[in-house]
Amino acid sequence: MNQCREFYRLMLQGSHAMARWELEMSTNILRSRKRQALLFLMLLPIIIGGIAIAAGDGELPSLIGGKSAYMPSHYTNAIFFASIFVGLCAGLITGCIGAGGGFIIAPALMSVGVKGILAVGTDLFHIFAKAIMGSVLHRKLGNISISLAVTFLVGSLIGATLGGMLNRYLYDLNPVLSDMFITTVYVFILGFLAFYAMNDYLRARHSEKAAAKKQSENPQGPAEREAIPPMGKRLQAINVPPMLTFDEGVTPGGRKISALFLVISGLIVGLAAAIMGVGGGFLTFPIFVYGLGVSSMTTVGTDIFQIVFTAGYSALSQYALFGFVFYTLAMGMLIGSLIGVQIGSLVTKVVPGITIRGFFAVAVSAGFINRAFALPQKLVSMEYITLSKEAGAMLNTIGNVLFFAAITAFTVWVLYTFVINFKELKKGGH
User: N or C terminus of the chain with fewer C-beta within 10 Å?
Assistant: First the structure.
């Protein structure tokens, strides 16, 4: 139990690292006129296409291709504005809670009827687009170990390839099987996070002193962890050439780890990122710190480095080339997330830390409940369990209602808090 709790803590720190990266990427984009112009150019074909469709006499097909290319051929205003709302919610979660909001995007898109594989590809493309405009040469890259990063990327790109191939194979075999597989992965990952997040919140409520102490440790970013955990010590003691040296500034003479373990770690992160459509930061942090014994700062730098390349490679080579990216959704989510991250980060300055912890628990639990309630209907469709169609549909509807009610309530709360405290935030120079 203690090991699971420690693993959760490190997964949370990984999410914090991803959130800080998203906040800084968004800030870089909004403060640069060149990047704003680039965003407008990326949106221009969508705008022109929408005008042409509205003015045209003929109707376009709803989809390009069939099972092998599921990308919608055009957008509607409803789809575009809905995508902005989804991006806004994810951005608010990222900025306010200090955890990557990617775990909300795929469940949200799947809940409104978007195929799982398309939701995954679109989310990865949205992350990649943000990384490109935010610039790859990020100041935090000064914290990375080049040898660790490059070796890790070897594994992550292999993992991303396998994850993309697996998703496409399952989709070609049976689209319902593909949705069921992606949903199952989300149920297990979000279920683990939801259990410990809610437990952490309830424990913090029972002890305000403990909550204040934890809040003072800066929940918006990973805490320093310079001591090597037991598992890290064991792996670093295994001498399997080639050995990589890192963290010279933390430990005299540096620490050493076999390149084999870096490749395996990258494989796991790349596989998860490609299957779930996330940056993978929530896994990189616990694997590096808890498993490999890498210092916090080196882990953060490597995490940021892998997000750019793993997300980009996965989005383009494993999904976009096969028609599994809905570009209109991706651009709409990008716009929404740019705004949401900024608003959410400001709100954290006027609310207590215990509230932020509570909303993180609610947000993760909402995603878990959504996918957990959707799973029975997919199992019934695959004839794995016996349940009436009406019961399966009702469970799916309940999950969707609870999910969107929780996310909408969170969004309204954050925006309301921002509006009523706008003058105070403005006086603070924000």
Answer: N
- The mean per-residue pLDDT over the stretch 268-292 comes to 81
Residue 369 contacts residue 124 (beta carbons within 8 Å): no
pTM: 0.76
Distance CA 226, CA 219 (A): 18
Q: What is the token pair recorded at 291?
A: 């498993």
The answer to whether residues 71 and 82 touch, using CB atoms and an 8 Å cutoff, is no
361, burial (CB in 10 Å: exposed 0-12, middle 13-18, buried 19+): buried
CA 426 – CA 428 distance, rounded (Å): 5
Which run of H or of E encompasses 258? strand 255-258
* Parallel/antiparallel/unpaired status of strands 243-246 and 255-258: antiparallel
Burial 388-407 (b: 16+ CB within 10 A, else e): eeeebeebbeebbeebbebb
Virtual torsion, Cα 425, 81, 34, 324, nearest 10 deg: 130
| Domain interval for residue 197 | 2-427
With vertex at residue 403, the alpha carbon angle to CA 397 and CA 405, rounded to the nearest 5 degrees, is 100
Residue whose entry in the numeric block shows the structure tokens 């799982």: 116
d(CA 77, CA 307): 31
Q: Of 260, 309, 295, 361, nearest to 15 (Cα)?
A: 361
* Cα separation, 96 vs 341, whole angstroms: 7
pLDDT in tens, 156-203: 999 999 999 999 899 888 888 888 999 898 898 888 888 877 887 777
Distance CA(83)–CA(91), nearest Å, equals 12
CB 193 within 8 A of CB 302: no
Q: Where are the alpha helices (DSSP H) in 112-174?
A: 116-134, 146-173
| Token pair recorded at residue 154 | 């070897």
Name the domain count of the chain.
Answer: 1
Cite the DSSP H helix spans in 225-352.
Answer: 230-236, 259-276, 281-286, 296-313, 327-347
Spatial separation of the C-alpha atoms in residues 350 and 244, rounded to whole Å:
44
